[in-house]
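Narrative summary of target 7.
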Amino acid sequence: MKHKENFSHTNPYTPLIIALIFFALVLALVVPSFQNSKKTSLEASATLSSIALRDFDFSHSPFESIVLNADIAYVRNIETEKVVFHKNADLVSPLASLAKLVTAYTALEILDREYEVVIQESDLVAVGDHGLLVGERWKLEDLVVFMLITSSNDSALAIERIANEYLKNNSSTETFLSLMNSTVQNLGFETLSFKNTSGLDLNSANVDPSAIGSAQDISLFFLHAYKTYPDIFTATSQSRSTFQTDIKTHNVENTNILLGFSRSQATGSKTGYTRTAGGNLAIISPIQGQMHIITVLKSTRDGRFSDVEELLQTLD
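Modeled conformation, tokenized:
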């Protein structure tokens, strides 16, 4: 008598096949996560901040009823690394002269502080006159601080020119402007982009911004630059400064009119204004014993100052 085949016995290879399938599924989940974890610390910080921007609830907070002229605002507690307040802070917007923060940082990264800058006539063609003279000799670090305090477009052109000369002499294929863009991208600030070193709009109609980014990214970049070159960026907190070159003494006032008058003394500051950008302002300031960074974008020429003062008052 023939016996029926017994189908209750499993294939001896079945456990191995199941194990291989399980291992493949684990790899599919783990490998992308491992690759994503290889971001730089600054990039990771920016990513975490983006999550905070979406999830933050300002109800029942001191900021619940705050009214700003600015369309965009960002406040971060530097000590705790937490976003205290934001308003559209992940939106990309024209930066105007906040771009000079990146111009300054990039120049300091590639040139010696003592590098001599001789002002040329071609440097003095930009909008605005802050008293630079043809043939005047500056140390790079002094010209950088002068640029940040006065928002001098001529200084930005001079720094770009001498940096390009340096890069060319050292056989670099990059221009200073391309280096500015690659610098912020390598640091993980993906919204920041620059078409010139001054932040001025690209045409006389003032409708084409040269520098764009989110309030979150320019704030975190400012903080990075401040920590990297503290003496340079702390110098931007002075309401008045004097610079001595070989042929002239420059007595200048900071473009941030809040300095010396606000509720909390800033330790770092940069203004920006164009018709396209509106009024922009970023400051680093101690508030109740903890450092904060505050940035407002797309305000008005005067409203940027009252906006930051309102945020300072709310935090204090």
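The first strand starts at residue 72 and ends at 77.
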